[in-house]
Amino acid sequence: MEQNDLREKLTALHDELARADNVDDNTRELLEHLSSDIQALLDRPGAPDDGRYRTLTGRLRGNLARFETSHPMLTSAMERAIDALVQMGV
Predict the structure, then answer these.
(1) Quick one: CA torsion of 5, 42, 87, 76, rounded to 10 degrees?
(2) How many Å is the Cα radius of gyration of the chain?
(3) Domains in the chain: how many in total?
(4) pTM of the full predicted structure?
(5) Which of 12, 18, 23, 66 holds its CA 20 to 30 A away from the CA of 80?
(6) What angle do CA 73, 13, 75 make, to 5 degrees?
(7) Helices 72-87 and 3-19 meet at what angle, rounded to 10?
(8) What is the residue-averaged pLDDT of the chain?
(9) Domain coverage including residue 35
(10) Using CA atoms, how far apart are residues 38 and 24, in angstroms rounded to an integer?
(11) pLDDT at residue 16 is higher than 70
(12) Which of 27, 48, 25, 28 is nearest to 10 (CA)?
């Protein structure tokens, strides 16, 4: 997978994070941190083996179940981003 494909998936996830509604304060804070991390990667992309990508992949995986029933579009965007990161070797 090319860097542009990864960028597209991260941008889509970033947009979906911004649209998430009906969440409690702790979840909103988590979404804001994920969104900030993604924006930092989009602003200053590094190599796929950059530790920031691994950290993001782990955090996304760790939160998939949390949004599975309440925010299926967000979950889908997270899964696509994780797949893209894995295909990049992260």
Answers:
(1) -80
(2) 12
(3) 1
(4) 0.81
(5) 23
(6) 35
(7) 160
(8) 85
(9) 3-87
(10) 21
(11) yes
(12) 48
